[in-house]
Amino acid sequence: xxxxxxxxxxxxxxxxxxxxxxxxxxxxxxxxxxxxxxxxxxxxxxxxxxxxxxxxxxxxxxxxxxxxxxxxxxxxxxxxxxxxxxxxxxxxxxxxxxxxxxxxxxxxxxxxxxxxxxxxxxxxxxxxxxxxxxxxx
Length: 137
Prior knowledge:
Elements: H1 3-16, E1 26-30, E2 34-38, E3 44-46, E4 49-58, E5 68-76, E6 81-90, E7 99-104, E8 113-114, H2 120-128
Antiparallel strand pairs: 1-2, 2-4, 3-4, 4-5, 5-6, 6-7, 6-8
């Protein structure tokens, strides 16, 4: 079996071992109904691009019944863009309970999106992207 064919299986096995309750979630944005967290230990960096796990926790259920979402985001720090790589929605808070839906490997359907100023996505960008070094005069 080629590695490409095994990739979805390996990714699914990896997700089986993700335990959101054991992650050291750090809150980075809060609204009336939603608290957004990131897991600093999950941060992977490669040539200015990051991958990181995000938890979106709702105070009360959404209209379709989910209370939380677990996402892996790709972030292009210099380009100020992001895209969703993985998304699962859960019936209980903090990505617990029944997994109601899963979308894996969404890179083909989710293009890079520019991060607007003044949004929770910009707050995440400030929290996880390295700051450009100031040049000495």
